[in-house]
Amino acid sequence: MLRVTTCTHQTTGLAVREKLAFSSAQQLGEAYRALREKFPESEVVVLSTCNRVEVYTAQDATSPTDATVDVAGFLAEFHQVPRTDFEQDLREHTGPEAVQHLFRVISSLDSMVLGEPQIVTQVKDAYQQAMQHNACGPLTHALFQGALRTSNRVRTETKLSTGRVSIASVAVGEFAKGIFSTFHDKLVLVVGAGEMAEETLRYLKDEGVQRLLVINRSPERAQRLAEEWQGEARPWHELGDWLGRADVIVSTTGATEPIVTREVFLESRAAAGRTDPVFVLDLGAPRDFEPAIGQLEDVFLYDIDSLQTVCDRNRRARQREVQVAEKIILDETDRFMAEFYNRASSAIVTRLREDWHSISQQELEALYRKLPHLNADDRDAVARTVGRIVNKLLHPPLEALRDEARSGTPHGLVDALKRLFGLQERP
Amino acid sequence: MPNVGIVCFLMSYLVAMAAQLIRFRSGSVWWVRTAAFFTAAGFVAQTLYLLLRAQQTRLPPLLSSLHDWLLVLAWLLVLLDLLLAVSRWLPRGHNRPLDVGAAVLPLVLAMVGASWFVPMVPSQLLDANRGWKMLHAALLVLGMATVAVGLLTSFVYLWQHWRLKGHARWSSGMALPSLEWLSLANRWAILLAVPLLTLGMLSGVALSVLGGRDLPAKTWVDPVVLGGMASWLVMCTLLFWTLRNENHPGRQVAWLTVCACGFLLFSVVGLQVLTGVTGSTSVHGAGPKPAGHSSSAPQAGEASL
Fold first, then answer.
1. Which of A250, A423, B63, B89 has the smallest number of Cβ neighbours within 10 A?
2. What pTM was computed for the model?
C-alpha cells in the first residue's frame, strides 16, 4: 500500500510548517533512524522543503498500521510538538492518489510558484537521502523513478517552466542581461533597503556583481544591507553623485514623491560624463524615479507595473500548459499503477506456472519409467504435448488475473487462485 | 560528386528563415532547432557547390566570377551564424545563447538570390598576377564580410534597444545578445573592416600598376572601383568618428554603422550586381553576360565554362 501524509503551504501556515520541517541532513538522518524503528516493515521517504513536509510510506497491504496516525504521532514525538497543533492540517493520499500527488509535486503543479524548477532537485535529494539511510524499497524506488520520469516529460513536453515569474528574476534575467553581458565590472547602486531590493541583489550577485553601494536615509539600515551583501554604505547626500556613476540602479524607498527627477538624473549623468546604457529598477510604490527619465536615450527604466506585466504574461503562459501537464501526469500515474498491479500479481503467476510444470515433470518421469521402450524422440514429443496442455490450462486463469490487474490489485482473485490450486505462502 | 544547385541551399535558407519567423510567435525550441538544421543543411550544400565550382573552373571561387564571389560572402555569413548558434549548446559561461539567425539569413538570402542573376563565367583577365588578384579579392571579400557583420550587429542592436524600451511583446521568445556585446562586436567589425578594405584597395592599385597593358584602360572609372573608393572613405570617416570619442550613444553609433555599411554593401556588391545584370563591362568579375545565359537555376555539376 502506497501512502503519503502531507503538510503543505496550501493547508498549513508557515509557523506550523517550520516546526515540522527537517532543517538539516543530520536531523533528517535522525528522523530516518526513528522511522525505521517505528515502521520496520515500511519503506519511507521524507520530503522536507520550506513549503512542504511529506512522508511517503509503502507497506504490505495486509499490514494493520494506520499510517496517518503513525506519521502524525511520529512528527509530534520527533519535533516535540503537540499533535493537536497540526493534526487537522495533515492530508493523506493512498494508492493512485498518492502517486498522482508526488507526480504533481515534482512537476511543480503543487508549488507556490507554478513551474518553479527547484522542486525537482529537492525531490531528488529526498530520494537520495532515503536511499543513503536504507529506507527505500522496491515500491519507493519505482515510485520515485516514475516521478523523475514524469517530471522530465512535463519539462520537455510542456512550457511549464519557461519564462520568469518573479519581479526580481524578470528584472535581472530578461532586462538587465539584455543590456549588459557581464556584471563583474558594473557598479550597482541600491537606494533604500526594501525587501525587494534584497531579492534583486541575490539575482545580481548570482550574475557576478562585485561593486555594490547602498544609500539610505537611515545610515544604520544602509550599513546592515551593505554588510550583508559585501557592499559599501554611502551617506544620503551623495545620491546625486552616485546616480551619475552607476550602471545598475535599484530603488526601493518608501518616499511618497519621486526622489529623482529628470533634471537631477540628467545633471548627474552629465557630471559623470556617462552616455552608456544604465539600467534603473524602480521598485518603489509610489515610484522613486520620474517616468520621464525612461524616455532618455540609453536609460532603461522599469517600474513594478512594467515588470509585473511580464511576470503575469509568463504566468499566464505557464497556466496554459497546466492541462497538458495534468494529462501527462495522469498517463504516467496509470502506467505506474499498471506496473504496480502487475508486480503484485506476478508472484502468484510465477508460483502457479512453477507448480503445474513441476507436477507435469514428475508425472512424465513416472511415465518414462513405466514405458522404458520409448526412445528420446518419443519422450520429447510426449513432453511437448504435456507442456502444451499445461499452458492451455493455465491460460484462462492467468488471463483473468491480468485483466483484473489492469483495474487494481486483484486481491480477491489472487486469494481464490491460492485456495483453488493450493498455493501456499513461501517462507 | 553529386549535382548541387543554388536551389538546394536557397530553399534550405528559406525554410530556416521561415522557421525563425514562426519561432517569434511560438517561442518553441523546436523551431529554433528546425532553423539551425536547415541552415546547417544549406551550408553543407553551399560548401559542396563552391567546391564543385572551383573544381570545374580550376580557379578558387574568389577569382572565378562575381557569382562565386557573392556566394563566398554569403558562405562566410552563414558560417558566422552557425558558430553563434553552436554557442547555444555550449556550457553556460559569460555569454548568453545568441539568436541572430533572423538577422543574418535575410542578408544571406539577398546575396544568394543576387548571385542567381549575375554571370557565372570566369573573368577573362586571370592569366597574369594571379597571386595579387587572389590577395586583392580575398581582402575585399573579408572586408565585405566584416562590413556585413557590422551591419548585422547594428541592426540587432537597434532591435534589442527597441525591445528593451518596452516593445518586447511580440519577440519575447528571442534571446538576443546584450547591448554591451553588440556594441563591442560592432566596434570590432568597424576596426577590422577599414584595414581590410584599405589593404584590398591598395592591392588593387598594385595590381593595376603591375597589370599594365593587360587591364582595360577604363579601370579607374569603373563604377565598382569608384563606388568602392567612395564607400571606403565613408568607412574611414566612421572609424575616425568612433575612435575620436568613445562616449557616443550606442543607438547613434548603430544607426551610423547601418548607414555606412549599407552604403558600402550597396556601392560595392550592388554595383557589381548591376553591372552584371545590365551587361556593363567591369574588371571585377562581372563581365558581360554571355549569350544564352539565362536566370534558370545554375547547377555546379552542369555549369559549362
1. B89
2. 0.66
